[in-house]
C-alpha cells in the first residue's frame, strides 16, 4: 500500500523545487535501501503534479485517490509481479505507450520498481524511453543498488540517492550490496547456508569432484531470489578477500571472472542451478 507519509523528506523537497521551477527531469533513478520509501516518493511526485487540492499533494483529492489506488491512466507501474526478473515483455508496453499523449493530465509517469531485476534485453529496450521521449513523460526507476543498473541506463537518468541506512556489520554489507529490508527478513538465519557456500568455494579451489555435488545441494537449498543473491555475493566477497593472499590471488581472480560471467547469465534468465553448475565445471578444465 502506498503511504505518502513514508517518503524521503529531503528528496521530496528537491523534487518539489524542481516541480515549482518547471525543471522536472524526464527520467530519474531513485536509489534507496528501503525501496518502499522510494516507491512512495515516486507516487508522491505523481500526486504533486496532478493534485487539485490546496496543500499539494493532499492525497485525498480525486486525482490523488486515482493515482494511489493504481487507477490513473497517466501513472503506470511496472514491477516483477513475483518473478525473479523484469523481462522485455513487461517493458515493451511502456514503449508502446511512449508515443501516446496523456489522457487526463499534462504529463505521464512511468514507474519501474525493483529496476535491478531488469534483464539485459529489457534494460536495452528502456534506452529510447529514457532519452528524449515524444510525449511528455517522467520515468522513475527504483532500485536498492545503482551498481546493478546498466551504465548505459544510468547515464540517461538523474540519480536521486536516499539516506543511507545506519545498519552495521553483516546487515550493512548486505544493504550496501543491493539487499532490501524485505530481503533480509526473507533470508533469516544464514548460518547453514554460509557453511555450504564455504565448502563449495573450497572444493572448487581444490578442483574436488564434490564441487558439482555441492553446487546441486546449494541450488536445492537456495530457493528464493534473496538466498540465491546471497550465495553469489558470499562467493564474490570471499574471492575479493582472497585477492590479498599471495597463495590464493590467482585463483581468486579467476573466481571473480567466472562470477562476472554468471551475473551476465542471470541477466539472461539462466536458472540458478545451471549457473552454479557452470561455476563448478569451470574449475575442472
Automatic annotation (TrEMBL):
<protein>
    <submittedName>
        <fullName>DNA polymerase III, delta subunit</fullName>
    </submittedName>
</protein>
<dbReference type="InterPro" id="IPR050238">
    <property type="entry name" value="DNA_Rep/Repair_Clamp_Loader"/>
</dbReference>
<dbReference type="GO" id="GO:0006261">
    <property type="term" value="P:DNA-templated DNA replication"/>
</dbReference>
<dbReference type="InterPro" id="IPR027417">
    <property type="entry name" value="P-loop_NTPase"/>
</dbReference>
<dbReference type="Pfam" id="PF13177">
    <property type="entry name" value="DNA_pol3_delta2"/>
</dbReference>
